[in-house]
From TrEMBL:
The lineage of its organism: Eukaryota, Viridiplantae, Streptophyta, Embryophyta, Tracheophyta. It comes from the Eukaryota. Keywords: Membrane, Signal, Transmembrane, Transmembrane helix. Residues 1-22 form the signal peptide. This is HR-LIKE LESION-INDUCING PROTEIN. The chain crosses the membrane at residues 126-142.
Length: 188
């Protein structure tokens, strides 16, 4: 199960890592093709935000946005492979910023060819975003593993008894373990 989970994280993160690698290699002085493709879309996005929400968007160089995307995808993907929630959060931040800007199907009429292409990419990236949210939710829903202490050879052969600190029902904090063969107590 652990290998399958690791393999799944590698395959999932490869989307982000390979994209970051490609953008990094093509970056150049001006941000490369990613900056050229992002510039008009970011302009439309900022005008929508300013006209509909009344929020003034500060001037940002497009190559800085591309470099931030490379960082979020690259570092987030690598951390995600090792099961880090921080990596998942970095990828979530990237998806939250990139999806509405890059896949702006809402700027096209539904009869246009671009609408269908952008809507398909939008829904695919929303599925990736949902998978990241699922990963974070599952990661936070399981209790942390308790550090297991090594048992003495005597305790391995006998059944340990948990002393419940005088209360029935819940384990005390910290739980006390009594080894019946030598009569010793260990704190877990």
């Amino acid at each position: 199960m652990a290998f399958t989970s690791f393999l799944g994280r590698v395959l999932f993160a490869s989307i982000f890592i390979l994209s970051a690698y490609q953008e990094f290699n093509e970056f150049g002085v001006d941000g490369g093709p990613a900056a050229k493709a992002l510039k008009p879309k970011f302009g439309v996005f900022t005008s929508h935000v300013q006209s509909h929400a009344g929020i003034q968007v500060p001037e940002i160089e497009i190559k800085h946005l591309v470099s931030a995307a490379i960082f979020l995808k690259g570092i987030g993907g690598i951390l995600f492979i090792f099961g880090s929630s921080l990596g998942a959060y970095l990828l979530i931040i990237h998806q939250l910023i990139a999806i509405p800007i890059l896949y702006d199907f809402y700027n096209y009429d539904n009869e246009e060819k671009e609408f269908n292409q952008l809507f398909l990419k939008f829904t695919q990236n929303m599925a990736l975003y949902g998978a990241l949210l699922f990963f974070v939710g599952m990661k936070n829903s399981f209790p942390r593993r308790l550090h297991k202490k090594k048992w003495s050879s005597c305790c391995k052969s006998t059944l340990p008894v948990f002393i419940m600190d005088g209360r029935a029902g819940d384990f005390p904090s910290p739980a006390v373990l009594w080894c019946s063969c030598i009569g010793s107590m260990e704190i877990l």
